[in-house]
Amino acid sequence: xxxxxxxxxxxxxxxxxxxxxxxxxxxxxxxxxxxxxxxxxxxxxxxxxxxxxxxxxxxxxxxxxxxxxxxxxxxxxxxxxxxxxxxxxxxxxxxxxxxxxxxxxxxxxxxxxxxxxxxxxxxxxxxxxxxxxxxxxxxxxx
Length: 142
Description:
A hairpin with a 5-residue loop joins strand 5 and strand 6. The chain has 3 helices and 6 strands. By secondary structure, the chain is α+β, with helices and mostly antiparallel strands. The mean pLDDT is about 95.
């Protein structure tokens, strides 16, 4: 089945809204994009309830509490569409100020490339956000 241009536009708008609220560090807005039964998967770690999804966004720095990436901004470089999902090639940019995933803070500006898969339900809420992020640039270069 080919995804129609109308469906691509709908999904793209939903995705861009999700990124806008993340980039505004608006946790209430972020959580409003998720279905109550939504799941987030980040580098093979599962966050299967609203509290853990909220905490995961906070740990990396995408809402009011200080997280590992200060001033974090997600950038969409490319969007791809399957029958069920939107696939994004993108980057998270910001300053690495706290330890993250066992990597001590470097104090440097970093760019973390990622591939993410998004699935929306019939009410336009995220039911699945799966992110695979390359954390290599967090490691300080000698």
